[in-house]
Specification:
By secondary structure, the chain is an alpha/beta fold. The protein is about 45% helix and about 15% strand.
Length: about 200
């Protein structure tokens, strides 16, 4: 299972990397095409070559989504645009994939939407983290659907905020999760020793 941080802080990433494997970063905000901030430059320099950077796309039209996605891809070969699954987004996923870009299809509400996005070339599919009780069942259905249809895309789950949920997801076959730095710190808490990330950091 791939493990990602939801953070734009280079210092948080470096600190957590001392004690846990991090496959990359999932951003909550788009990256400006006109000017890359000092904070973003620091983040890009903190990421290793093999680590991935997922960046949300906020445009509505297919043409503008593709333009944004090309800007994301220009940040590095492992920079991946997160395109929402709308009719325009599905078309953008297909065109970007044809251009050789890895794409995440996001804001997915149903397995059927995920199926169409993956068939259009999405390498990752992220379901909305709905608060209703059916959310986890949808994730499991999607994992099973990929397995039955021999589809190689990865399902990513957001908003994992406790050890119990992380454990349940890891046992279900989910391919990728992303967490906030505070949630990541909670995963390091030992029930026996109560060693926290702050205590570990003091000795690194």
């Amino acid at each position: 299972m791939e493990f990602y941080l939801n953070s734009e802080s280079a210092s948080q990433i470096r600190k957590l990397e001392q004690v846990m494997p991090i496959d990359g970063v999932v951003l909550s905000h788009p990256v400006s095409a006109s000017k890359i901030s000092t904070r973003m430059n620091s983040l890009l320099s903190a990421l290793r070559t093999e680590q991935k950077l997922f960046v949300p796309i906020t445009s509505i039209s297919t043409e503008q989504m593709i333009k944004e996605a090309l800007h994301v891809y220009s940040l590095g070969p492992n920079s991946i645009p997160m395109i929402p699954v709308t009719p325009q987004g599905l078309q953008a996923v297909r065109i970007c994939s044809q251009k050789g870009m890895q794409v995440m299809a996001c804001n997915i509400g149903t397995c059927e939407q995920a199926f169409m996005a993956i068939r259009n070339g999405a390498a990752y599919a992220m379901l909305r983290h709905d608060s209703d009780s059916s959310a986890f069942a949808k994730m499991l259905d999607l994992v099973r659907m990929l397995r039955v249809n021999h589809m190689s895309a990865s399902v990513m789950v957001s908003a994992v905020d406790n050890r119990a949920e992380f454990h349940e997801l890891s046992m279900s076959g989910i391919q990728a999760v992303f967490v906030t730095p505070s949630a990541a710190a909670q995963l390091l808490v030992s029930a026996a020793s109560q060693v926290t990330l702050a205590q570990l950091g003091a000795h690194c």
